[in-house]
Amino acid sequence: MMEAIIGAGAALLGTLAGGLAQWAAARATRTTAERQARHTAVATLTAALAAHRTAMWVREDARLTGANPAGLAGLRAASHTTRAAITVPLTELCLTAPDLADTARAAAAATYALRHPADHTQLTAAREAALAAERTLVDTAARR
User: Whole domain around residue 104: which residue ranges?
Assistant: First the structure.
């Protein structure tokens, strides 16, 4: 009788240990997948921000140097395309990593601020602020 009780207890402990190991493995996999999703979302957003920052620099530099209206219209259309390309990655990052949402929105706002500077000095300052905001986003994401 005692052997049966010990055997049943050992089987129960074995089942419990196996279940805990399975739970721990599933949790580790889920954590890795979540971390990878966050990294991908940050990388996708920073690529979109970089494309828009470049488009805005080219557009505003052309405007400040007196480019012809037809050329400016093409540059404006290009910058509208790159700005629209920020929406999905920004939304994805805010949904995937809500703790990064404010930092991501600040990086986007800093990039949008390249619009209509009074001169090249302001354009350069706005670009540097946008780069700094992007670095803050990446650094914040790396720490979390």
Answer: 36-143
Phi and psi torsions of 118, nearest 5°: -75, -30
Is residue 23 situated within a structural domain?
no
Q: How far apart are CA 101 and CA 90, in angstroms?
A: 8
Q: What are the pLDDT tens digits along the chain (144 aa)?
A: 677 677 666 666 666 666 666 765 556 566 788 899 999 999 999 999 999 999 999 999 999 999 999 999 999 999 999 999 999 999 999 999 999 999 999 999 999 999 999 999 999 999 999 999 999 999 999 998
Instruction: Enter the pTM of the model.
Output: 0.81
- Are the C-beta atoms of 123 and 117 separated by less than 8 Å? yes
User: Are 78 and 59 contacting, i.e. CB atoms less than 8 angstroms apart?
Assistant: yes
